[in-house]
Amino acid sequence: MAVLSLKLRDFRNYPELHLRLNGGPVVLTGPNGAGKTNILEALSFLSPGRGLRRARLSDVSRSDCGSNVKWVAQADLASCVGPVAIGTGLADGGDDEGAERRVVRINGEAVSSANGLVEYLDVVWLTPQMDRLFVEGLSTRRRFMDRLVYGLDGGHARQVAAYEKAMRERNRLLKNGGADPAWLAALESQMAEHGVAVAAARRDGLARIEAGMALAAGVFPKARLAAQGTVEAWLVEMPALAVEERLRKLLAERRGIDRDAGAATEGPHRSDMAVWHADKDQPAAQCSTGEQKALLIAITLANARLIRARRGIAPLMLLDEVSAHLDVRRRTALYEELLSGGGQVWLTGTDEDLFAGLTGHAEFFTVSDGVVAPRTVFS
């Protein structure tokens, strides 16, 4: 998968930007704060969700031109189903609940949900903010786990969205009080159906990534992975249909508890992703900072290999300041794998010398105060 053209309007520090690309790796270098990560963030909006920064959609709009500005990102791509044009941006007006929403167009046609983007491309990213993934809150790890699975299970994004939609509606009814029990039961049935599908896909996806890492040779560590939660544990013990019924009953029993808590207190929305350094038999959270970074890269590379095997084309990869913290041996191994994968990878850094291993293979751009200029373009 590759971006051949990228256009931005009123996106972060870019009033206008138009890049034409040859489909190969892209290296963006420049000082901190120049706008390198902003370009990666724009590319991350070619997938479902709130982008690699998880920012409020209105915060992405260029800040120096008023509150009514609506950002836009457009890209022409070579996707897994052929050429495709994708456009997305901040929509006028909110959704039914008044929340911000973004509009998505595929080949000029509006689509009802950004989840439809997974049919055309997979986007994988690593950012410096993810370096503490193994030691910070479980919600961050859970989102990372789901993004891993998006590329391995084409229906996972829709299942997650359907589960969360039913859960939000149930929370609202419990909060307001006096809800029809039959209505609550219907929502709990939806949560059980979609929630079990979500948990099962997580278990399967992590098992496949772990198996792929175990077979891979190289300088990056191997990891053991597990989705941990009540529903995941039940799936080890009983068939999926039995787990659905058990979860449905549990949700019904906990209506009073959940009403008082203001949220559903059981379900796959509370699950965690556990990671161990396989060779050391040590939880990732107890590993050194360097080992945690290497584990994160290894998991991401394994995920990209599986996506390539499933789709027949490598995912779009966004690697923000990843090279700066690797020694020469691992940096060389990373570049070799990225180039052998055949997909497009975007890399950022402040020191162009760190990307010498990509000379002759990548397009280099310098970024300074929102101006992007080609340094050297290789055919």
From TrEMBL:
Domain of life: Bacteria
Binding site for ATP: 30-37
Membrane keyword on record: no
Principal location class: cytoplasm
Compartment annotation: Cytoplasm
GO BP term, pick one: DNA synthesis involved in DNA repair
Function (record text): The RecF protein is involved in DNA metabolism; it is required for DNA replication and normal SOS inducibility. RecF binds preferentially to single-stranded, linear DNA. It also seems to bind ATP.
Family statement: Belongs to the RecF family.
The name this protein goes by in its record: DNA replication and repair protein RecF
Species lineage: Bacteria, Pseudomonadati, Pseudomonadota, Alphaproteobacteria, Rhodospirillales
